[in-house]
Amino acid sequence: MGGAQFRVIIFAGMKSTTWGIIGPGKIANKFAIALTLVENAKLGAVASRDLSKAQAFASQHATPGAPIPRAYGSYEELVTDPEIDAIYIATPHGYHAEQAILCLQHGKAVLCEKPMALSGRQVGLMVDAARSHRTFLMEAMWTRFLPMIEKIDSIIAEGQIGALQYVRADFGFLAPFNPEGRLYNLRLGGGALLDIGVYPLFLALHLLGEPERIVATGHRAPTGSDDTCHAILEYPANGSATNPSTTGDSTTTPSAVVSCTLTCQTGITAEIAGTAGMIRIPTAWYKNDHFVLQRTGEEPQTIQLEPMVNGFEYQIREVMKCMEEGLIESPKMSLEFSLMLARTMDTIRVQLGVKYPTE
Ligand SMILES: NC(=O)c1ccc[n+]([C@@H]2O[C@H](COP(=O)([O-])OP(=O)(O)OC[C@H]3O[C@@H](n4cnc5c(N)ncnc54)[C@H](OP(=O)(O)O)[C@@H]3O)[C@@H](O)[C@H]2O)c1
Q1: Beta-sheet strand order (sheet of 41-47)
Q2: CB of 99 closer than 6 angstroms to any ligand 1 atom
Q3: Pocket test for ligand 1, best of 27, 33, 75 (most atoms within 8 A of CB)
Q4: What is the number of the ligand 1 atom nearest to the C-alpha of 91?
Q5: CA separation (Å) from 163 to 37, 155, 237, 301?
Q6: Domains in the chain and their CATH numbers?
Q7: Which of 78, 87, 91 to mutate to test ligand 1, by most ligand atoms within 8 A of the CB atom?
Q8: C-alpha to C-alpha distance for 84 and 147, rounded to whole angstroms
């Protein structure tokens, strides 16, 4: 677990929340470590299709002096555990919708790994379930809650870089082709766009809102999933209906360029430019704790935020805060935002010719 450098983040007043995990794989491991950083959060149980795997994960993440988290050999057992308040879903995207709906039907709050699901239609079903069962649901877009993003938001809101005109971000790494693995297998939600393109797209939509027009191109792997995708997002002159405050000049048209690939390592950087300056987030932008602010005519200024420990602690805190306030969604990562993100990916996928078996 990395031991001594971890510290507990104190969030006074937060009620105790007992978490369950569905899918104890790679990212669930990081999540379980993050739980130890948030006061009043604890891992209560873990569920896998394979009981021995759940047992191994539970022992690995047992907290000294506390009971070992319960291990279940089915997801159904976890959702009926009365001691579990919230469930983190960490399976391949192709299963997110059915598993999230199962949790919501049993009154369990859900933090669902990104992307929320395969399509806007699936996300719509999840949102309907959250609303009809009055139960919390949030996409685990952890970048949204990092101090870096909060600081960039305030710099833009203060007008320090003028009216936003341009966002560019990329995310690429080399994932050797494996037709069965979750990155390439369409049944599991394979494709660069949904797995990593969702990050640059999140940044563009967070800052500029829903685009008016999208032009996308890319390349499909032999399985039919996209291994590379580039999309240009165009916005109307007065800003998008979902984010009118970011532009101020009716003669300019903001745009965004997002790229992702599984075929090579890319810079993983981002730029956010306005009429009075720009922000550069160096690699790896989606998990950074510093960025460079360059206002027109001034020297560049590096803005350093508190160093990140794990990164997931901020989203865990948000879920617990919202639950304590009786909310069924986060005002910061709303259900409407996840729907917009999924709709935008649908539009891009149509242009790429990528279709999932459930569509
Ligand atoms: N936020 C981030 O930084 C981040 C990073 C990586 C991934 N993710 C997201 O997290 C999710 C899981 O990614 P991962 O890399 O952690 O996945 P993984 O380790 O390959 O699998 C996680 C779990 O999913 C289930 N699973 C795996 N393959 C399956 C299959 N073929 N059929 C049915 N279930 C299967 C297994 O659950 P059982 O134990 O029950 O068999 C497994 O333990 C994805 O949606 C991904 O986008 C997020």
Answers
A1: 70-72, 41-47, 17-22, 86-89, 109-113, 137-140
A2: no
A3: 27
A4: 24
A5: 37, 11, 11, 19
A6: 3-141 (3.40.50.720), 147-307 (3.30.360.10)
A7: 91
A8: 29
Q: 28 C-alpha vs ligand 1 centroid, how far in Å? A: 8
CB 315 within 8 A of CB 111: yes
Pair 224, 186: CB distance under 8 Å: yes
pTM: 0.95
Residues 89, 116: contact at Cβ < 8 Å? no
Q: How far apart are CA 150 and CA 244, in angstroms?
A: 19
Which element (helix H / strand E) includes 331?
A: none
Does an H or E element contain 5, and which?
none
Instruction: Encode pLDDT of 53-68 as tens digits.
Output: 999 999 999 988 888 9
Residue 68 to residue 226: CA distance in whole angstroms: 41
Q: Which long-range contacts (CB under 8 A, 24 or more apart) does 74-77 make?
A: 74/47, 74/49, 75/22, 75/47, 75/49, 75/99, 75/102, 76/102, 77/47
Q: What end-to-end distance do the CA atoms of the chain give, in Å?
A: 40
In the 8-state DSSP scheme, what is residue 142?
Answer: G
Contact 48, 54 (CB under 8 A): yes
DSSP 264: S
Over the chain, what is the mean pLDDT?
94
Q: Give one word for 269, left, alpha or beta, with left for phi > 0 and alpha for psi -120 to 50.
A: beta
C-alpha closest to that of 39 among 61, 62, 16, 58: 16
Type of residue found at 59: S
The residue assigned the tokens 């306030």 is 325
What are the pLDDT digits (tens) for 337-356? 999 999 999 999 999 999 99
